[in-house]
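ok so for the tutorial part 2 we go from a plain amino acid sequence to predicted structure tokens. step 1 is just haveing the sequence, like this:
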Amino acid sequence: MKTKYVIRREYTEAIRRKSFIITTFVLPAVFSLFFVIPAFFANQEPQKELRLAVVDQTGTIAPQFATALMDTLKNGKRAYAATVVPATGSAYDAARAAQIEAVKRRETDIVLAIPQGIMTGEKASYITREQRNMNVMQRVEKALNDVVLKQRLAAEGIDYQRVKDLTAGVSVEMNQITAAGGVEKKSFMVEYGIVFIFVTLLNLSIQVWGVTIAKSIVEEKSSRIIEVLLSALTPRDLVMGKLVGVGLAGFTQLGIWTAIGLAVAGGALPFVLAKVGPLHIPPITFLYFVIFFILGFLFYASIFMMIGAISSTDQDAQQMQVLVQLPMVVPFMLLLLLMQNPSGPLAVALSLFPPFTAQLMMARIILLTPPLWQILLGMALMLVSIFLGVTFAARIFRVGILMHGKRPNLRELIHWYRMAG
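step 2 — the prediction. this is what the tokens look like for a chain of 421 residues:
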């Protein structure tokens, strides 16, 4: 029961730190500034009529191009005011140069120069001063492609619309037989995205709060207050209290991040669903998500606790953190391999290996839910690993207090563990 006091102390201290407030509220705002806002503006169309001068050396493409470019703005007005500039033969270069000067004087926004050899592969020129919007350039390029293709086919006596209808692409919808025997629609990119987000969130939380746990234990070892604490608590109570208390602070931060992320992404959700279709995620998947997130966090946090128990200074702890960070990278490398055969022997074996279980078992659940016994076995192995990790950290911590200033090797660690028993 004494552990609850340590949990309360660690939790309140963690959420009162300036670093907690900054990383919880400032970081999402920074990410929004650097990712969400640029992405938002990148997809915005200019809300004014663009003046487009079409310098056409062929003399036949520009009129059809101007007709094809009949887009409208949200207010109903035309998006492009295309002006055809006759420039056949040797007049092409002079007309092109004159229109470029018009752009410099801001009398024209865009110049599209179409050379005589456009029909045989020569490139057209898109010239602008300020209108570098990629959506605008792609729209102009598509309209020009359609006109050129239509004229090429007409020269061969082939109907453009007939060819377009016959060459229309075929869409293949991915479906998967579920564990219950039903058939449901699946999307590779959606599944990969969900798995990637889960692994990223787990690794980010571990990196931030695992380091906090290790640092907290190092600070306790280096301060005299530890002697007072251990007079009322066992090392196991203290270590477990730190693990749960700091872990709760991490989950609090993650919950706030999730709420902010949903609020920011809420406006884009209809657009995403329109692109990828409805998401078919069974409710139990969310339960597995929470369980494996907690288990994964506690597993790696227990390893960070071992590092803190072994280390005498923050520098020692930082040097040893690479031993935790390297295994955390492996699931990222295995995701694509796992997606190809989520029920293969290699996928099953790796998902039952505790350092990878949280990430890879969750990935398998999202891709193709494995048998229940494999899920339960993965949970059991992680619980045992967490228990062993906490026990080992508590024993090492108990002896390590007396060995301050000395970082042990593996043989000495085993000796410390036996001494504490």
